[in-house]
Amino acid sequence: MLKPLAFVGPCNSSSISFMIKGNLVAPSYTWYAGTYPTWIHFDSINRLVVTGGGTIDGRGSLWWGNVHKRPSAMNFNNCNGLRISNLRHLNSPRSHVGLSCSKNIEVSDLNMTAPGDSPNTDGIDISNCKKVNIHDSVIATGDDCIAINSGSSDINITGIFCGPGHGISVGSLGVNGDLATVEEVRVKNCTFTNTQNDVRIKTYQNGSGYARKISFMDIHMVASENPIIIDQSYHNGGTNGGKGKSSNKYQNCHLARPKSQTGNGKGVKVSDVRYTRIHGSSASDQAITLNCDADLGCVGIVMDNVNMVSATTGHKVFASCKNAHGSFYDSKVTCLKKYYL
């Protein structure tokens, strides 16, 4: 049994190791998440190692549907050289693991579980992080298996089994008119099963910035409702106080990041996105949705060997493109407009 707590550095030791071997269980009551937005928080601890094979049980069912602002189960802020491995995460009130304002991170061998209808229970949220490697994990939750938020770059994701959930998402970006940037994201060798979405980029219309140099490769999908999505008109009513997923009272970035801007209304530019060897089945007839802004558009979109079939016998799948420009090879995405420099 563990109350909300925070471990805060800096520490004198060159490295700190936490071994979680048993079951950590959250309190049997709710608390004011405005004061404690994370159940277990680590801040400003370099070369931190968290492992041990134990279970982190957030008792999220006490919060879902009853409390407007809910805490994340575990967050790591300003922890450079972080290593997380060999842990089981259950039923977080909100996101299971948050990574913020850190660089040189490796995450592996995690098993995350929450009901498919549990609200905002992302597996891993990344914001303002650089050089992150996430691999060989199973994530089955009620929201994004992995969400890559603003200020993040050089993100590598491989060997993830995702589902149920909302897939692997870049964004949402540009909420409340903010300047948002994400680049150099590589997702490879992942399997999505019975997910609401698979590989998704989502941006708000009134934001600014960019999402660029993103690749999805060797992806297998099983009965996904929306396998491939780019949505530059994303809108979310805000089921957690209307704040972005990276909002955290403890967050104090020491990494260089763009300052917030508001109200320019130009949108977040999406460019240089490549989909390579994407196969599997779609639960909906519209397997590909590229919904891009009329003014910005999406440019440099490449579909290479992208072929899906319907999960329903006798149905055919199709792609829908709006203001999307790029090229396609061995893929049935004829709605994609050829892009000329």
UniProtKB/TrEMBL annotation:
The keyword Iron-sulfur does not apply. Keywords: Cell wall, Cell wall biogenesis/degradation, Glycosidase, Hydrolase, Secreted. The active site is at H166. It is found in: Secreted, Cell wall. The keyword RNA-binding does not apply. Its main location: secreted. Pfam families: Glyco_hydro_28 (PF00295). Gene3D superfamilies: Single-stranded right-handed beta-helix, Pectin lyase-like. Belongs to the glycosyl hydrolase 28 family. PANTHER family: PTHR31375. This is Probable polygalacturonase At3g15720 isoform X2. It comes from Camelina sativa.
